[in-house]
Amino acid sequence: MFAQWRVSFWGITQVFEALSGRLSGVFDGLAKRGALSEADVMEAMREVRLAMLDADVALPVVKDFVNKVKERAVGAEVLESISPGQAVAKIVNDALIDALGGAGAVPITLNAVPPVPILMVGLQGSGKTTTSGKIALRLSTRERKKVLLASLDTQRPAAQLQLAQLATQANVASLPIVAGQTPVEIAQRAMDVARREGYDVVILDTAGRLSIDEALMEEVRQVRAVTQPAETLLVVDAMTGQDAVNTAKAFNDAVGVTGVVMTRMDGDARGGAALSMKAITGAPIKLTGSGEKLDALEEFHPERVAGRILGLGDIAGLVEKAADTLDHEEGERLAKKMMAGKFDLDDYASQIRQISKLGSISGIVGMLPGMGKVKEALGDKDLDTTILKTHLAIISSMTKGERKAPAIIKASRKKRIAAGSGTSVQEVNKLLKQFDMMSSMMKRFNKLGMKGLMRQGMSALMPKGMGGGPPGGGRPFR
Amino acid sequence: MALGFFSRLKKGLSRSTQKLGGGLTSVFTKRKLDDEALEELEDLLITADLGPSVAGRIIESFRRTRFGTEVSDAEIRSALADEIASVLEPVAIPFAPDPAHRPHVVLMVGVNGTGKTTTIGKMARYFTDQGKKVMLVAGDTFRAAAVEQLQVWGERTGCTVIAGPPNADAAGLAFEALKQAKAQDADLLFVDTAGRLHNKSALMEELAKIIRVMRKFDETAPHSVLLVLDATTGQNAMEQVRVFRELVNVTGLVVTKLDGSARGGIVVALADSFGLPVHAVGVGEQAEDLRPFSAQDFAKGLVGLPEGEAEAAS
């Protein structure tokens, strides 16, 4: 895993270099000054505000958060600290982790007389049914509970069938479908069956509903009244925008949310809705969905999501993604060569192919610490991945010998390579120059190691003149 | 579709924009448009999911032309609506199948849970009502009961649904369906696909394969690739559109769930950045709940203006 990560990370790094991204994190700026004024804190908070809005944290929640953190930051402690930038960064990060739920995941409450009802609510398409199946699997395998799944969704075609099929996949029971019953009737029947047949847990999956749909909100209120659920879980799509506030408030007012499940955390949304949900409902985020398979359900990690929201990266997520996507053996091979300082242009080509497998570059960018600014600088233009294709073309026009030892490539070879790849000598030069820089960066990386990198972030890798600060001077927020 | 075209959309939008509208009233009634007012206005646009860059641009234009003037609530709403409508106008293009293609193949794509299958059901109803022969392909062979869901829509709309066994190869199924649709001289063929996150390259590749395989039969297919987008989606919609467009050449958007409290302001940001046609909006769960996208009405709804007042005020 380690080696894998190293390889993919290195590859991504050089993509940035190729595009002359500049690192100018606001916290880097603070760190350089040495002393921190109130104005500095204000300035930093403006950036935090923007980062959070970009991450879809709801505006009222952002304002509240920023005000609180400002109060905490503008004080003697920060101003007198040895490294003011880091102090502010730490305060922001800690406050965000705090706001997201602080230490540790909160488990699902099963603390009631069985059968324990769990009510699943949310907007259409948020992932309630899939999540119901996932929770059923989790409770039956990890907690050895006897689980009954019941779909109260009489709105969407085949929704009940969908849950029944998921129950089969999860190897748990589902309530037989009786056409024509109302959701309240189904809920009562589910509880009756569960009592009679000795189930521990009944998961009640409801139809998706809009928070402004009075009739359907009343219906779910009734379901809650007749079943008295131990948990009412609000299922929320991680991609949700500013409307998160309305959803959270409406569902909380109507049925009293006891926990939140964030779905599609495997996407590249920054997931600010998590913070909005927590702030508005006060209910803990209990679980996150991270895939379509039934076992893709995880405990919530506030610290990971905090980094993601602030645009400071989700290293753990990136590692997972890289591990999922990349060719392990190839990665190992490349890593070994890299460690041995024998990385050549053939390996670079292989590297590019691996990188392009990772999908959208700007999605990856968001996962890297210290890269939020770069992404911003790029604006609406995605990172231009055509340069990678160009590089591949150029490399494939080289001879084996040239790829092994790029130093032998002089003027006439350059001309030939340019002609063969349909590029220009300048482009060939650029590639060679970059490869040279990469090699030196790679050496820094090897020296720094994983820990150093986590501590100092990407900017530590950037050669002088590339980044916004002195080498190693970047201090992203860790 | 034209009849009673906006009543439902308007209902949804006006509900959803009450907050924005209300906010404006409190901010701008007989007030000088100063820095503070502009900042509040920017906040209001941000809470509508317009996105920081579009919100910023609108505010800048206001700053240039109106800074320091006394403005009324109606004026500011009207100007806002005009500005937003001008961004949306070029993308408000109704979906029109090309009769030269028999069938006109429509590939529906999008992330999970945005409403692809429901939208197909609605479009099937609309074109069936127009006297077109419509066929549907249950290309979501992955999600539990997705096939059955589309089959219910087939029954509701009287359209043939072509389906394969669970976990069948969606590309092969689409190929067979296209052959059948051609043989039966269908006007339209809607290909449903499994929802997929745009950052999952293997799943995106699968989508590209569906297109490749269909082209072996008809090299012009698919004639439309519609990305279905949930109006509650925030800034990540930009990334969705960017990646889907890059990998499967999206030709247009359908925005769903506009009857909720989400204002769908991201549509403005999308129009600004990508300029992809917005063909229709979904405003409910019934077969009739699909409307063509109107820039004027969307913009007016977004700022809480009743229809027809923007011109009067400006």
UniProtKB/TrEMBL annotation, chain B:
<comment type="similarity">
    <text>Belongs to the GTP-binding SRP family. FtsY subfamily.</text>
</comment>
<dbReference type="InterPro" id="IPR013822">
    <property type="entry name" value="Signal_recog_particl_SRP54_hlx"/>
</dbReference>
<keyword id="KW-0675">Receptor</keyword>
<keyword id="KW-0963">Cytoplasm</keyword>
<keyword id="KW-0547">Nucleotide-binding</keyword>
<keyword id="KW-0378">Hydrolase</keyword>
<comment type="function">
    <text>Involved in targeting and insertion of nascent membrane proteins into the cytoplasmic membrane. Acts as a receptor for the complex formed by the signal recognition particle (SRP) and the ribosome-nascent chain (RNC). Interaction with SRP-RNC leads to the transfer of the RNC complex to the Sec translocase for insertion into the membrane, the hydrolysis of GTP by both Ffh and FtsY, and the dissociation of the SRP-FtsY complex into the individual components.</text>
</comment>
<dbReference type="InterPro" id="IPR004390">
    <property type="entry name" value="SR_rcpt_FtsY"/>
</dbReference>
<dbReference type="InterPro" id="IPR042101">
    <property type="entry name" value="SRP54_N_sf"/>
</dbReference>
<dbReference type="InterPro" id="IPR027417">
    <property type="entry name" value="P-loop_NTPase"/>
</dbReference>
<feature type="binding site">
    <location>
        <begin position="192"/>
        <end position="196"/>
    </location>
    <ligand>
        <name>GTP</name>
    </ligand>
</feature>
<protein>
    <recommendedName>
        <fullName>Signal recognition particle receptor FtsY</fullName>
        <ecNumber>3.6.5.4</ecNumber>
    </recommendedName>
</protein>
<dbReference type="Pfam" id="PF02881">
    <property type="entry name" value="SRP54_N"/>
</dbReference>
<keyword id="KW-0342">GTP-binding</keyword>
<dbReference type="InterPro" id="IPR003593">
    <property type="entry name" value="AAA+_ATPase"/>
</dbReference>
<comment type="subunit">
    <text>Part of the signal recognition particle protein translocation system, which is composed of SRP and FtsY. SRP is a ribonucleoprotein composed of Ffh and a 4.5S RNA molecule.</text>
</comment>
<dbReference type="InterPro" id="IPR036225">
    <property type="entry name" value="SRP/SRP_N"/>
</dbReference>
<keyword id="KW-1003">Cell membrane</keyword>
<feature type="binding site">
    <location>
        <begin position="256"/>
        <end position="259"/>
    </location>
    <ligand>
        <name>GTP</name>
    </ligand>
</feature>
<feature type="binding site">
    <location>
        <begin position="110"/>
        <end position="117"/>
    </location>
    <ligand>
        <name>GTP</name>
    </ligand>
</feature>
<feature type="domain" description="Signal recognition particle SRP54 helical bundle">
    <location>
        <begin position="9"/>
        <end position="88"/>
    </location>
</feature>
<dbReference type="Pfam" id="PF00448">
    <property type="entry name" value="SRP54"/>
</dbReference>
<feature type="domain" description="AAA+ ATPase">
    <location>
        <begin position="102"/>
        <end position="253"/>
    </location>
</feature>
<dbReference type="InterPro" id="IPR000897">
    <property type="entry name" value="SRP54_GTPase_dom"/>
</dbReference>
<feature type="domain" description="SRP54-type proteins GTP-binding">
    <location>
        <begin position="103"/>
        <end position="304"/>
    </location>
</feature>
<keyword id="KW-0472">Membrane</keyword>
